[in-house]
Amino acid sequence: MAAAQKKAVDLMAKGEKCLTKFSFFGGGSQKYEDAAECFQDAGKMFVLAKSFDEAGKAYLRAAEMFEKTKSDFDTGSVLTRAGEAFQKAQDTRQCSEAYRRAADVFAGAGKGNMAANASKKLAELIEQDDDEDRLPEAVEAYQQATDFYDAENQPRRADGCREKVATISARLGAYDDAITQFDALGRSALQSNLGKFNAKKWFTYSVLCCLAREDLVKAQKLLGAVWKSNFGRPAPSS
Fold this sequence. Notes:
GO molecular function: soluble NSF attachment protein activity; syntaxin binding
Subcellular location: Membrane
Number of strands: 0
Helix content: over 70%
Mean pLDDT: 90
Order of helices and strands: HHHHHHHHHHH
Oligomer: single chain
Structural class: mainly alpha
Strand content: under 5%
Shape: elongated
Largest sheet: none
Distance between the termini: 73 Å
Keywords: ER-Golgi transport, Membrane, Protein transport, Transport
Family: Belongs to the SNAP family.
Membrane topology: Peripheral membrane protein
């Protein structure tokens, strides 16, 4: 690990030196590309040395360089690695910021799947932080991931995040939001024969949320959906 640490420090110094280079032949972006490669490699070495905080900072430095070269894919990728390193260093603040930036970069570049993955990582981090006051942030990040996965036509991944939006919303007492998401999960489940077995669960959760907010009319309507998902026909009228 000591060797990896020394190699990482040397690479950081090499990267900074790249930025001081001057060329009579132009090629201004080349020094940023060279520096980015050094900082990125330094991040990898810091990870091997288990110096996760320094790894995160190295990846952030690489992101700065890739931004200058207009390489959105590389920028988002090293920001994601920075988030992973800061997470191992238990630096929640910098980890959250890195994942949030990665999601924004990927979204701006039209990389919906990668943006979704970064948003999901952010949401999971906030949820695991066990801070009740931050749960609305987790809901927002899970919802963003859901939207990205939907746009990329990945229904299973979208529904996985949608379930999180629903359950956390219900926990927070945001029953209208929970009802909307549970209902969407139920309708999605009805699209396949195998999924129909889960549809009644989601519609039942919707009903329970309606009862929690004392909306008996909507609860009765959703009970009809539960009946139909079970028996394939409308509920009998009373």
